[in-house]
Amino acid sequence: MANTLDYLNWRGDLSLETAPFCEVDSLLLSQLAYLPMDGLVPGRQAQGSAPLPEVMAALTQSKAEKAVLEHYRALGPNYRLLAEKLKTCPRFRDVRLCRFANDFDEAQQKQFSAVSVLLPDGCVSIAYRGTDNTLVGWKEDFNMSFITPVPAQREAVQYLAETAHAFPKAALRLGGHSKGGNLAVYAAAFCGAGIQSRILSVHSHDGPGFQQGVMDNDGYRAVNGRITTFVPQSSVVGMLLEHEEEYVVVHSTGSGPFQHDSFSWEVLGPAFVKEEGTSAGSRMFDETLKDWLSRMDAAQREQFSDALFELFGAAGATTLKELTASPGKTAGAVLGKLAGLDADTRGVLLETLGELMSATGKTLQHTALERPGKGRNGGKPPRLKGGSRNAR
Fold it and tell me: pLDDT per residue over 137-152, tens digit each?
């Protein structure tokens, strides 16, 4: 099985002029957006840009700052390997990075990060970061089921507008993984006709969808033909909420929800290895979750989300890693907090969690049924777009 890291081995010697920007390059930039580039790439209000190889060299030096090393530990080893390979990769030698944003606001329940990538052909590619390891970031994801826009979505539109203004003659590409994919689509839909006319493509890599009102917007309809959503065959995150754009099913070597890890996506040459449709388990989860959400109005979803994260916060954790570091301590704090909730809130929380666990159980029972099936497109398998099966 080959992934984006192998792609850099195979095609890293081919310049972007020789082998044009492709769907795998878009995923690579979405992975790049997760790297801790604070202080290494000029910020949103700063002038200038930084060569990508120099930024990667700083991120991989043996004396990297403690915060960088902690960031890698939270992400996993593949991101360190990504930085190592990009550091010396001829394909990205002339790429520059600028306008790095990393905005975390617990009070606003906002987690937003993005970077602008200056490509040799004069195009600017904006890569939006997905959800990080913080509970605030995950809370904002939950909020998407009853709030539009969430703070990160508003910020994504503003970031795109500022970048388009900073590079008034550049064509634009947008992309992101997970929540980053959602932000890329949302920004493209709400940036206005003038900026939309400059957008070449929008790539969402297993990004969740939206409430129906977003897709009824004229801006969404105007850019919809340039949006491509990539999902693995057992997609969970990418099936959340609603989508109207066509999607491409990518073969992943991961298991179940772990297919969300984009390093498990199989690559051959300049394209992903495709599947005919999502798995039975993915479709079951999609249908069950939508049914579960349809039984709650916006107020009930908000009440559930607030109560759930209030329980998580009872353990004093601010990240998922902290939440799971001491299971016994966390469980005790959560149970204590649960007992102290008022009866109505506790009842809603337990009932909703029970329904969710039931939905999850049904999904797990079907994950073994890895056969092609119906997608989102009116019961028909998706039309696969782009990509060649050539090795180079």
Answer: 666 667 776 677 889 9
The number of angstroms, rounded, from the C-alpha of 152 to the middle of its chain's C-alpha atoms is 12
Q: What is the pLDDT of residues 252-300, one digit of tens each?
A: 998 877 888 899 999 999 999 999 887 776 777 667 766 766 667 777 7
**The model's pTM:** 0.81
C-alpha dist (Å) from residue 95 to 125, 269, 381: 10, 21, 37
End-to-end CA distance of the chain: 16
Give the helix/strand (H/E) hosting 383.
Answer: none
E strand residue ranges, the chain: 50-51, 96-105, 110-118, 124-128, 172-177, 199-205, 227-232, 247-250, 267-268, 271-272
Q: Are 199 and 174 in contact (CB under 8 A)?
A: yes
- The candidate with the shortest Cα–Cα distance to 215, out of 312, 119, 135, 148, is 148
Whether residue 149 contacts residue 167, with contact meaning beta carbons closer than 8 Å, is answered with no
Using CA atoms, how far apart are residues 250 and 278, in angstroms rounded to an integer? 9
**Measured at the alpha carbon of residue 52, what is the angle toward residues 51 and 53, in degrees to the nearest 5?**
95
Phi-psi region of 360 (alpha: psi -120 to 50; beta: other; left: phi over 0): alpha
Look at residue 161 in the predicted model and tell me its pLDDT: 98
Which run of H or of E encompasses 57? helix 52-60
Closest to 75 (Cα-Cα) out of 140, 153, 114, 129: 129
C-alpha to C-alpha distance for 133 and 321, rounded to whole angstroms: 7
Q: Which tokens belong to 26?
A: 């878009």
Residue 336 banded pLDDT, cuts 50, 70, 90: confident
